[in-house]
Amino acid sequence: MTYRLGVDVGGTFTDILLIDEATGTTYRAKTSSTPQDQSVGVLRGIERVCADAGVPMPEITEVFHGTTVATNAILEGKGARVGLVTTEGFRQVLQIARSFVPGGLAGWIIWPKPEPLAALEDTVEVRGRIAADGGVVTELDEADVRAKLATLRTAGIEALSVSLINSYANPDHERRVAELAEQELPGVPVSLSSSVLPELREYERTVTTVANAAVQPQVARYVANLADKLGGSGVDGRLCILRSDGGLVSAESAADNPVNLLLSGPAGGVTGATWVAEQAGYPDFLTFDMGGTSTDVALVQGLTPRVGRETTVGDLTVRATSVDVRTVGAGGGSIAHVPPLTQALRVGPQSAGASPGPAAYAAGGTEPTVTDANVVLGYLPTELAGGEIALDRDAACAAVKSIADATGLDSVEAAAAGIVDIVNENMFGALRLVSVQQGFDPRDFALVAFGGAGPLHANALGRLTGAWPVIIPPSPGVLCAYGDATTNLRDEAVRTLVRRFAELDDASVKSLLTELAGKVAGTLAEQGVPEEEQRIVYSADLRYHGQGFEIPVTVDADGFGDDGKAGLDALRAAFDTEHERLFSFVLDAEHELVTLRATAHGPRPRVAAAALPEGGADASAARTAETTIWVTGAEVEAGVYDRSRLLAGNVVAGPAIVTEMDSTTLVLPGHAATVHPSGSLLIRPIEEN
Length: 689
Description:
Among the domains are: 79-213; 283-468, ATPase, nucleotide binding domain (Nucleotidyltransferase, domain 5); 490-601, Dna Ligase, domain 1 (2-Layer Sandwich). By secondary structure, the protein is α+β, with helices and mostly antiparallel strands. The radius of gyration is 26 Å and the shape is globular. The protein contains 16 helices and 37 strands. Helix 2 packs across helix 7 (202-232), helix 4 (142-155) crosses helix 5 (172-184) and helix 11 (393-407) packs across helix 12 (412-434). 31% of the residues lie in helices and 27% in strands. Strands 13, 14, 15, 20, 25, 26, 33, 36 and 37 form a nine-stranded mixed β-sheet that branches. It has a six-stranded mixed β-sheet with strand order 3-2-1-4-11-12. This is Hydantoinase/oxoprolinase family protein. Residues 508-674 form the Acetophenone carboxylase-like C-terminal domain. It comes from Actinophytocola glycyrrhizae.
């Protein structure tokens, strides 16, 4: 017997999912996260799930891990002290940044500009210059480099980043600076922009490299510490870390390039949703991950998540490939309030967090939250997780009554319904960002809802978007860990060109694609993936000549021959189609190829999908109780169902509540949830069932 393990570390809980590779049987565990050393909570969770499953730890062959170490280091400002080496004349590249201020009109008046990760006093200039075509304009002055590195050593930097102008075209000067740094700054990790992001644009390349350096020491320590703890507990399986783009890399590669891990957590959820939707037979879907503080949404088409070229964490935006996830400050802990000036009900983005939490948790919280509203409306039973968690309905009613009093509503239930309606609209707005704003009709997609609070609001979001069916995965609260365990190894290589199509032919592009493919294939081969089991896909960043920014387009490498321009013509047409979809027009202008990219994918893990026994449409065997809920301004009777008793084919007609260990699903009147053989609940309007 062999097992693979998915581990997802969140701010409050660490989720562990153990999968029997032969049968698809899963075992899950939740344990409190340990922010001071996440590996402690991870190991505790692994020991617990193995004990519950009766699985010896040495039988775990692979550990796939989504981590927030890099994310937290940025958000909490606890990254390493970074020194930056730039080309002479570019010392203030991070301070100048881009001329963009978030917010509305006159936002600059109150906007506190974030401090760069590398302070100006820790930034040095060195003499030497590379041209845009890769030629050497001025030779590198090594004596000057040594002197500047000595200055940084005296300052006490903990990590070094090197970003010299045009190094994407010729990395020789950066590599020589790194060699000198080994002598002048022994033991200090070095990040080179020509390795981290060998692409055009000095600011984006520099800020990304500095971010990589800032989190590298912490990530390296964490990965090494976790590997040691796993080995000491008898787990000799391979340790891999989830990247922001939803792929896996070896622990060693993750420690070298941690900037690619900044959205590791949300990417796991999208990957897990993709696995679940594939089993249910829906390749096109929206994801909806609602937690305690925020909601993450994304769009997946053809079982392939849309990937963006930027990653944003807090005030920091870096140029790193990541799943295109949008976040809104709406979660179970979001606080409802009525500003005195407007007297209009608002929900979030402030959150009650885990401590004291919602009033219903009876842990000292008094402010009304979304969770309290769901308790008042009867959507959340007063006992969760088989009776392990008790909710105080009286405390929830007292908290929500303050909203009823402030708004003049005639009942606490009406106030609670208003809170839920507003938070649903906020999340609907986020879903529109990844669908309508990107040129997609949400009615053409299913909706996969997960996270602790997602299934409670999913049916309502289905009505707002018109996305059917709404898919509720098994164990929705630990889906991110499932995603970690069911994804594949991945690596990416890029080359910046900035060439007009008139300057290119198929043969030259094909040669570059072959070179990039060889690089990524070699990386995966070193990680134990034979080349014959790899799949390589290509993309290009294109623009009309004169435009400032590019659009990524998939490249069909087979269409590029040894002569002619048929491949370029197809690429031109694909770009025009995408440009028209995004902006509703095309230009009669020359096309320009800015960047080529090759991505190697390892094989998908061979994990058998779980299959529920057939049970027919009658779900009465899983019905455990009756309860009263508030819907559309009135009380109605609803059935309560135990999800663990549901069988394939069972139909749960709304109004109904489906309970399980880590989440609660609400089925609204006029809708029904059908149990798919893979274990997912498929919610649709009754006329569509």
